[in-house]
């Protein structure tokens, strides 16, 4: 009974972690609109790969070594710079004469790397894994490593299902949405990504000044 409860609890936690509108979701939507299912899915897969690496770091006990000022500095600098770059290029693409659905193929090549980078250098993601989730796994591992492992896998399953949902939904919905609406969605995503970069860059500047 405890295992079933753990599976349900952490699966819902995974969905709850992945569901809020954030850089990963917006990048999945943006690439799903322009390039279809696989480009969107690769962003989510890249993000999940970073999550798995964070999880392994927690499980083997290396988390304290990453919670130092130099790592925090890199996290805010690279994360903020990446979001700013993605935001500006997305906004620029929204004003080009080319149709969104014609932007497709080139954007697929780096989808996995972009998804991985957003998740790996997102300070909010970092805080979740090494703060909130890290303490949860620690308490579970004191009871049983099997329960802790089930919890980890269930969390990843929840994230996986949500990413799959976004990729499928955007892929099938884009054929029914007019070009102007697609560009408006793209523009909105670009603005959100750009705005999201400023708190990280501000924190980065505060750390180096």
TrEMBL record:
GO terms for molecular function: amino acid transmembrane transporter activity. The chain crosses the membrane at residues 42-66, 73-92, 112-133, 145-164, 184-205. It is a multi-pass membrane protein. Its main location: membrane. Keywords: Cell membrane, Membrane, Transmembrane, Transmembrane helix. GO terms for cellular component: plasma membrane. It comes from the Bacteria. This is Amino acid transporter.
């Amino acid at each position: 009974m405890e295992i079933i409860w753990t599976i349900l609890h952490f699966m819902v936690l995974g969905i709850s972690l992945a569901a809020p509108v954030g850089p990963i979701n917006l990048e999945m939507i943006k690439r799903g609109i322009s390039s279809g299912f696989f480009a969107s899915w690769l962003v989510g897969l890249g993000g999940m790969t970073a999550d798995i690496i964070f999880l392994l770091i927690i499980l083997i006990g290396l988390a304290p070594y990453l919670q130092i000022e130099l790592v925090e500095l890199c996290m805010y600098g690279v994360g903020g710079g990446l979001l700013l770059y993605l935001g500006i290029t997305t906004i620029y693409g929204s004003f080009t004469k080319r149709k969104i659905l014609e932007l497709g193929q080139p954007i697929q090549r780096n989808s996995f790397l972009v998804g991985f980078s957003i998740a790996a250098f997102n300070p909010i993601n970092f805080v979740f894994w090494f703060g909130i989730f890290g303490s949860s796994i620690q308490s579970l591992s004191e009871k049983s490593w099997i329960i802790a492992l089930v919890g980890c896998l269930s969390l990843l399953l929840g994230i996986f299902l949500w990413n799959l949902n976004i990729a499928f939904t955007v892929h099938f919905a884009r054929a029914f949405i007019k070009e102007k609406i697609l560009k408006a969605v793209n523009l909105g995503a670009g603005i959100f990504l750009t705005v999201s970069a400023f708190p990280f860059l501000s924190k980065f500047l505060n750390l180096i000044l």
